[in-house]
Every structure is written in structure tokens, then in C-alpha cells.
Amino acid sequence: MPAVTDLLRLHRLEYPFPVIYLCHVGWGACYAVASVAELPRPATLITMLANLLPFVAMNALNSALDIKADAATAGKRSVSQAAGRVGSRVTIGCALGEMALAVLLATGVAVRLDRPVVAVTVGLAVLIHLLYNLEPVRLKRRGLANPLSLGLTFAVLPCLSTFTAAAGVPSAQVWLIFAGIGLLLVGRTLWWSVPDLPADAAVGDRTPVVLYGVRRALIIACAATTAALLLLGAGIAWRYGLAPAVVVVVTSGAFLAEKLRLLSGGNRARLPHERQMRRHTLTLVMIADLVLCAVPLHAAGGNP
Questions:
Q1: Where are the alpha helices (DSSP H) in the chain?
Q2: For this UniProt entry, which segments traverse the membrane (predicted)?
């Protein structure tokens, strides 16, 4: 019987990921509801769960397939050890079962609401997660397809899915916000992959950091983050006003400082440690993600 701690580690449910994941699946609904009372509707909550399951399933699948790379990465050796104790077959089976359940839940909501986008977005996210990890495609090793696919599956598609379940078709304002959130995730993914450089290079995964080096990859991350902040600022200001836009840009922009710090001294000898990045910098990410949820809910709080 696998230990609970091993399963939590394989699904990457250590601090602060659970809070961050809940924000990712909640953003769409938060920007959809006209009042806070609309948020806990069953269809919306089920759709949020259907979008959450592929996140953790993808992490487990990746852990099972990247045992060697994780074993060579400081801060991820415990993931490799957990995968070894649980076993690749059990971990992969668990991940595929979670993905299947996600599609089933989303399909049920789509049929109930007559909104097929709910099921299509979850199904597409699951497909991309599989293509990210599995040969012969394995998007993880295909340069910029790596962060772009994660920006889609961890941001844009879940936002669209839960928004559709809660309200229907997003407006142009909301599309700007979702595009900004997606680019935020692209920048974060590039930053998060920096400590994996030696291990990814050793196993032949041609991630952007491997292909372009730390400095150029971080320049791309900074450019993506800057574009994200512009889109977020424009979308939030258009929908909620200037003051909320400033709050969002400041809180989400704080993470850019970490990218710039790495950029000023990025090289193989000074690669950051995954645990330090997770416990310190990702706390800033968590706060920014919570603010992205709070802004629309605060606006909706004044409605009956």
C-alpha cells in the first residue's frame, strides 16, 4: 500500500501547490459570477474538480516517467524516491485513472448544461498532458512547446472551462485576462525549469533552458511575464477599473524581480535550488494568484 506522503509528493501537493492549483481552477469561475453566492453551484464545483484532477495526474505521470532526471536534480530526489517506492506501473495507472475521471465529470456537466466547451477543454488539457509526457511526441523536450503547453493546460483551458460552466461565453475583457494569466504561466514554467538544466540535458530533454541556456531562457521568461502584465492590466482595468488593475500588476509583477535576479547571474554554477524556489518565491506566486481570485470576487461582493 503506497504511503500517503509518497502519493502527495508524486502529485506535487506540498506547499504551496494546493493553494496555487485551487486558484488555477477557480479563476474562470471567479471572473464569471455576478455575485459570490453563485460560486458554489454544483456544476461549477464539479467543473473545478474536473480541471484539478488533470493537474495532479500530470504531475504523477511526469514523476513516473522522469525518475532518472529527478534523481539527478537537487530538490527533486525525493520525488524520484517516492516514485521508486510506489512503482511506475501503479503511479501511471493512478494518473490515467484520474484523467479519465476528469473527462467523465466534465462530460457530465457539459451534457447537463448543454455547454460542450466544458468537456472539450478538459479533454484537450488531458490530451496535451499526455503528449507532454509520452513518446514519440513528448512536448517536454520540444523547446518552447514545453512552456506553451503548460500555459494552456494550467491556465487558459481551465479558465475557459470553469468560466463556461459558470456563465457561458467570455467577453473580450475576460479573454484579455485569461491570455495574460496564460502568459504568466509560460514565464513561471521557464523560471521553474532552470534547476532542471543538468538533468534534462543528461536525459536528452531539449527544454528551452537546455536549448538556449539559462540567460536566454530567462530573457524569454521576462518577456512573457511583461506581456502578461500588460494584458492583465488592460483586461482588469477595462472590466473593474484602474485601482484593481494596479493591485494585480504589482502583486503579479513582484515575481518578475526573481527572474531579473536570476538573469543578472544565471549560469550553471549558480543554479537555484528547487526547494528554496518553492518555499520562498512560490509564496509570492501564491499571493499573486489569490489576488487574481480576490479582485473579481470583491467586485461581485457588492451584488445581491
A1: 4-10, 17-30, 42-65, 67-71, 77-86, 88-113, 117-133, 145-151, 157-166, 172-192, 197-203, 208-240, 242-265, 274-276, 282-300
A2: 19-37, 43-65, 86-111, 117-134, 146-168, 174-194, 214-236, 242-260, 281-301
Q: How confident is the model at residue 191 (pLDDT cuts 50, 70, 90)?
A: confident
Q: Phi-psi category of 74—alpha, beta or left, where left has phi over 0 and alpha has psi -120 to 50?
A: beta
Spatial separation of the C-alpha atoms in residues 161 and 118, rounded to whole Å: 5
Strand, coil or helix: 304: coil
DSSP assignment letter at 280: I
Residues in the chain: 304
Using alpha carbons, select from 108, 13, 23, 20 the residue that is nearest to residue 63.
13
Question: What's the half-sphere exposure (Cβ side, CA atoms, 13 Å) at 6?
Answer: 16
Joined together, the cell numbers standing for residue 122 give 478538459
The reply to whether omega before 136 is within 30° of 0 (cis) is yes
Distance CA 142, CA 208 (A): 8
Please state, in angstroms and rounded to a whole number, the distance separating the CA atoms of residues 205 and 185. 20
Full-model pTM: 0.91
Q: Which of 219, 287, 217 is nearest to 252 (CA)?
A: 287
Provide the percentage of residues in the chain whose pLDDT is more than 70. Answer: 91
Spatial CA neighbour of 7 closest among 97, 106, 141? 97
